[in-house]
Design brief:
43% strand, 5-stranded antiparallel sheet, 5 strands, mainly beta
Amino acid sequence: MQRPAGARRHRQVDVVMDTILVVNAGSSSVKFQLFGVEVNGALRRLIKGQIDGIGTKPRLVAEASDKSSLINKTYARTWSRMCPPRLPW
């Protein structure tokens, strides 16, 4: 079968997802994990971490699957610079 002039041939592309990001957001923290999908479909945790102290003094902690620390950093409080002054009423 011939294609009409100017018609494009489209290839089917299989998309394979090899990582899954899981996020759990709370009122003052965000926890996350990154999993790798093995060839047999099994999941393997690659990274686990959290950001806590949101709204006060944020801290980011993350570790690799072998429990080695990837980051453990506390950030300066910036909330007061972002918000207008409170009104006295």
